[in-house]
Design a protein that fits this description.
The chain is built from 21 helices and twelve strands. It is mainly alpha-helical. The chain binds one RNA strand of 76 nucleotides through helix 5, strand 7, helix 6, strand 12 and helix 11.
RNA sequence: GCUCCCUUCGUCUAGCGGUCCAGGACGCUGGCCUCUCACGCCGGUAACAGGGGUUCGAGUCCCCUAGGGAGCACCA
């Protein structure tokens, strides 16, 4: 246990693969955490193992119910479902305390009576001596028990030898035990600390592969030592490189644009977010588009890059547009409906969502854009887009528009094809380009210069709304003509 | 300060000693298509951090430097 012993650092347990995602519920679930969850989930699926969720909510001051809800709903939205009910770390206190007692009994832990002031001095001294701020182990063999002081409990880290981590991503990383100090495993009030809890939980949950951010790499040798002191075999480790913000800086938990909630609010599709994330640090040749089934079949943590990746929001947007385009209408229905509801747009008075999606999904980047560019189907035009009206609703077009309104009113069949025929015929008769007629019409019925093909736009709008809006537009043009 | 990790186009990446005057994708950009927007199609732009080795040959192996990151709590 104290010597170099690479073989047992990550012994291969002969049991099915089991991964876990273990977030602490202290804020928004950001996109970096989601990727960690995705990789853990993918690896479990790939190996036909299990993926578990553990909420590390032992920091009562910072953990919140809302944050737990965000994690749960976020993962559900993405489809990263755990195979068992989530484990709440806060409910495992007894197990943690038992483990602490076990270490105490085995003389692998001891009580430390040093005061905070004493520890601070020790750190300063260590720094001054050119080392890292560490505890010197002075209470290891302390015989007295000062009644006035409430002790913490420290783990007896092996003093010599080294810990070898054969990390699935980082490769072999070696730490000398001399670099590690005796960390606190129980606070003065008896509550267990992070490194102890993690080890006990991972052991009890029979986790075989710990896939987490590489900010934990430095904790790993300590955790491996605790595993062994507890008589357990450490799991395999895979430390993922961190994700950086679009500007290359550290991803902030408070950065609104990178939280999973924000992605949803922006109308991004789960499939796009997943596809974007899987390509951050992992690739399969030149392939950019991966279905869930392909990800599961092809993904292997061992292929993940070691370097940090910066977020490229434009590429996410592009992928999202791609998925808007290729997703069957049926798959988008529920997501789109929710987005309209969030935006406060009532769908009752307008085309059905299925029909709308059929024409709109190919031309919008995300669901938010879908809502914004479809409002006019459901809500009255409050005002014309200024530039569009100025350019297209001018007096010169009045005769043509009046003719058009008449012919559309005479239509008995209100289909895209019939509408198109009317417009084409009139354009030919008047010797106009299709566009010279279509644009004013578009502004008249949508209020702006952007919409699906004019025939489909009118078809979806229905004859009544079209007539009503055309008359309003004709009045507008006449008024403008009179005004000179 | 100490320990550990990283370094190919602006960004994500391919590359696992010769097939690389470095490939794909996003972005940007020229053109085509076109009733608007978008899509699509054709083309362009742009990178092996620097320096030493090893080798017949290095983006690919080794070392150093520089730069970046993480951790070093009675937080998780």
């Amino acid at each position: 246990m104290t010597g170099t012993d690479p073989a047992s650092a990550s012994a291969t347990p002969d049991r099915p693969v089991r991964t876990r995602f273990a977030p602490s519920p202290t804020g928004d679930l950001h996109i970096g955490g989601v990727r960690t969850a995705l990789f853990s989930w993918l690896y479990a699926r790939h190996c036909e193992g299990e993926f578990l969720l553990r909420i590390e909510d032992t920091d009562r001051k910072r953990s919140t119910e809302e944050a737990i809800a965000v994690i749960l709903t976020g993962l559900r939205w993405l489809g990263l479902i755990a195979d068992q009910p989530p484990v709440l770390q806060s409910q495992r206190l007894d197990r943690h305390k038992k483990a602490i007692q076990q270490l105490l009994d085995a003389d692998k832990a001891y009580r430390c009576y040093c005061t905070p002031a004493e520890l601070a001095r020790m750190r300063e001294q260590a720094m001054a001596d050119g080392g890292k701020p560490r505890y010197d182990g002075r209470c290891r063999d302390r015989a007295d028990k000062p009644a006035a002081l409430r002790p913490v409990i420290r783990f007896k880290n092996p003093p010599a030898g080294e810990v070898v981590i054969d990390d699935l991503i980082q490769g072999r990383v070696v730490y000398r035990n001399a670099e590690l100090d005796d960390l606190i495993i129980a606070r003065a009030d008896g509550s267990p600390t992070y490194n102890l809890s993690v080890v006990v939980d991972d052991a009890d949950m029979q986790i075989t592969h710990v896939i987490r951010g590489d900010d934990h790499l430095n904790n790993t040798p300590r955790q491996i030592n605790i595993f062994r002191a507890l008589g357990q075999t450490p799991p395999h480790y895979a430390h993922l490189p961190l994700i950086l913000g679009p500007d290359g800086s550290k991803l902030s938990k408070r950065d609104g644009s990178t939280s999973i909630l924000a992605c949803k609010a922006q109308g991004l599709l789960p499939s796009a977010v997943l596809n974007y994330l899987v390509r951050l640090g992992w690739s399969h040749g030149d392939q950019e588009i991966f279905s869930l089934a392909e990800m599961i079949a092809l993904f292997d943590v061992r292929q993940v890059n070691k370097s940090a990746a910066a977020l490229n929001l434009e590429k996410l947007a592009w992928l999202n547009q791609h998925y808007m385009k290729i997703s069957p209408v049926a798959d988008l229905l529920a997501l789109a409906e929710a987005q309209f509801e969030r935006a406060g747009v009532a769908l009752a008075d307008g085309p059905g969502l299925t029909e709308l999606l059929a024409v709109q999904k190919e031309r919008v980047k995300n669901l938010q854009e879908l809502v914004e560019q479809s409002r006019f189907f459901y809500e009255d035009i409050v005002a014309y887009d200024k530039a569009a009206a100025k350019k297209h609703l001018r007096p010169a077009i009045l005769p043509a528009m009046e003719l058009l309104a008449g012919r559309l009113a005479a239509l008995t069949e209100w289909t895209g094809a019939d509408i198109k025929a009317v417009i084409d015929t009139l354009a030919t008769e008047l010797n106009m380009n299709m566009g010279r007629l279509a644009q004013p019409l578009r502004v008249a019925v949508t209020g702006g210069a952007i919409s699906p093909g004019i025939d489909m736009t009118l078809a979806l709008l229905g004859p009544d709304k079209v007539q009503q809006r055309l008359h309003t537009a004709l009045e507008y043009i006449r008024r403008r003509a009179r005004a000179g």
